[in-house]
Amino acid sequence: MKQIVTLLCLAFFASVPMWLTDPYLLNALITTGIFIIGAMSLNLLLGFTGQLSLGHIAFFGIGAYVSALTSLGFDVPIYGDFHIVHVPWPPIAGFLLAIVISGFCGYLVGRLSFSVRGAYFVIVTISFAEVVRLVALNWVELTQGPLALTNIPSITIGLPGLGYLVLKTKFHNYYLVLAVAAISYFLISRLVHSHYGRAMRGLMENETLAVAVGIDVTKTLTLAAVISAGIAGAAGSLYAHYIRIIDPDVFAFISTVTMVIMVVSGGKGSLAGPVVGGVIFGLLPVFLRPIMPPEAQWITYGVVLIVILFVMPRGIVPSLAAKLGLARAGGTRRASVAVSERTAEEHA
After folding, report:
1. 3 state DSSP class of 74
2. Looking at residue 267, what DSSP letter applies?
3. Which residues cross the membrane (predicted)?
């Protein structure tokens, strides 16, 4: 049943450019889709391991800058007459490199910060994001600082026998974002339904029991951090090549808050939660903007979030699934207790 719903939703989103002719709304869907990818990556940490990262936008921004600089090239003086020179590579190479480097940064942050928990982990992630923002702001020779990187080329895909397709129009970028979102959804789904995913849930529900039955805490959480950071980097790369201009504001804290809202309102720990929450809170400002002043827009935004969390405290997707009988709400806790035992048997 869930697979059928997923395929129907994918078919609906694939049909949108066929009947939606307003370029403004299509642009809003593209940017919303990019942040939904970021929210899905954050959900892997917040929803399946219970680790709240308020510096997640750092990986998004790293992906954006890596992809942009790979595509534009650079000449950076290091010491005296010694320079590091990079000639422009194809944008698709920048996209792939953004995933790799963002994932590597996720590995480093994970190895360094997963020894702490709770508020300490949150502080570490916020500090990391601020350090990266300051580097982007002050390393003017590389990033242009507040002047921004401009004229970032669009992603180009080689088609065998047909030449190259430049993904420059909104129509092309919509399907590119949809494809990356679908692949990210599939990868996260396969991960959380594997024994690693069960280990993540076990750590979230009862870390002491999970450790007692042999689950490697650092390895499991670091794997989640690497994949989460890599997907966030992919989203950042898409953003850079679509907007075609980036500056240190890409690391704005409000972007992380937006992703958290998408995850929590949609339902953290559910695969579809960030998608549903992302569509609602990504498009809500678009519909409020023509009819309300900015102050009223933010008030309405907050009121809608409060109402959703008051009526459906577990999030939209888990609450609706429980009411429709698609999930056994009462058995969730009992099932999670058995997660560590099953995972231990597979590790043994």
Report:
1. strand
2. -
3. 24-45, 57-80, 92-110, 119-140, 146-167, 174-192, 221-243, 250-266, 272-291, 298-316
